[in-house]
Specification:
mainly beta; 5-stranded antiparallel sheet
């Protein structure tokens, strides 16, 4: 699950994803975005702010209109950052490869275990804000 928080937020409210030893994985997806440009003639960019004390992943999911076949493309793995950061991703090539009419952003955070089977850290938090898809 996720929550909207004002404490520690970038602007107003931010999305907060938490994990701990009782809940080791937290995954969320955005609402479906339909008909993004996928020929390469127009670029598609993702803009977002983030702050995190644990690594997390961003994936792009593509589905058919009926919701059947789904493709997943890893976009980026974030390393911990104590400060808020703004980042841009050019998603154009991902969309060209996927060739799907519907897309979602998928965020995944998980506690990792070391080679001894012990958790590398006991809890973690990821803050997300100002998530925007831009195409022109």
């Amino acid at each position: 699950t996720f929550e909207f928080v004002t404490d520690g937020a970038f602007e107003g409210r931010s999305v907060l994803l938490r994990v701990d030893t009782a809940h080791t994985v937290n995954e969320i997806v955005t609402e479906v975005v339909e008909n993004l440009p996928s020929t390469g003639a127009r670029q598609v960019w993702l803009e977002m702010h983030y702050r995190n004390d644990i690594p997390f992943e961003l994936w792009l999911l593509g589905t058919e209109s009926g919701g059947g076949f789904e493709q997943a493309q890893p976009v980026f793995q974030f390393v911990p950052s104590a400060n808020w950061n703004k980042i841009y991703f050019n998603l154009t090539e991902f969309l060209i490869v996927m060739q799907q009419p519907r897309h979602l952003l998928f965020f995944r955070v998980a506690l990792r275990k070391n080679l001894s089977g012990q958790f590398e850290q006991l809890d973690g938090a990821v803050f997300l804000d100002n998530i925007r898809l831009i195409h022109f």
